[in-house]
């Protein structure tokens, strides 16, 4: 079985796939920039992080693809060919048998869509951070390529996509609910006679194209006041069943309150409220993870402080959006086969130092 990557702008060899329709050219990545970090092997250090972004970024655009078979979010089948988008899609498709005519051999309910339809979601489609990083900008690519014709196109989504996905697509791209067609990945196999497949908007491990910045800057922003900067802590305290162990979470949030931070729980806010609160904040702190990715709505110079470091997403959002990044990673441990938990065993002293560092940075900025 041959794998085709729909993310790098290469010309495909299958006759059912159009040439790459470029929206924005390849470019050089933003960053890296120096960050502050308090880690296990040293005190506070202002330096470049060892995890560097990929320098040469792929172009941004889309393909028109004939007779695409969709079996689940994150993978497409073209006869004996499998199309995938970036890192998550390929692994997701390895379990699909290499049938020459999958849809005819499948025992699932067959759904055939004749009109042009956008296929741009993927694995973990019900996770907020994946929509911020992976999927929402892809719909923006189609919107900006097709312009007015975009609003006549259909969108394919899983039937059990959360309601906020529909709201997010409407707010960001103007997708109306009546243009969303849904299927059940557990029981349906979908044949799209003409699928519109946009590229992802990053290269390798989340090295973002500048299009992502322009896309999120197109949302209405409320710049923070230079005299009374708003500071928020993104709380994960309401997530029961989480595999994160953070014994001093309550102390972390109490310290934040004492220092004038607003504690927000994104799941309790509407999408416009989330966009507004992040847009007007000059300091955003929290545990490293999906909720912090809403910092894409923050302006240039925002101080973004994370407890823990699990991947490069937040770091590279900071490079792209010109944030000032602060990390407390001392005492933070990855899951192991014996312990399926992210451990955030930071001390009270290190939390105080974390807040002091951020206070110093905001004081320096306000005096500039």
TrEMBL record:
Give the Gene Ontology MF terms in alphabetical order.
Answer: glycosyltransferase activity
Asked if the record carries the keyword Glycosyltransferase, the reply is: yes
Every Glycosyltransferase 61 catalytic domain range: 128-304
Q: Which UniProt keywords apply?
A: Glycoprotein, Glycosyltransferase, Transferase
Query: Record keywords: Glycosyltransferase included?
Result: yes
Q: Which domain of life is it from?
A: Bacteria
Q: Which Pfam families match?
A: Glyco_transf_61
InterPro entries tied to this protein: Glyco_transf_61_cat, Glycosyltransferase_61
| PANTHER family cross-referenced by the UniProt entry | GLYCOSYLTRANSFERASE
> In its UniProt entry, what is this protein called?
Glycosyltransferase 61 catalytic domain-containing protein
Provide the species name: Acetobacter nitrogenifigens DSM 23921 = NBRC 105050
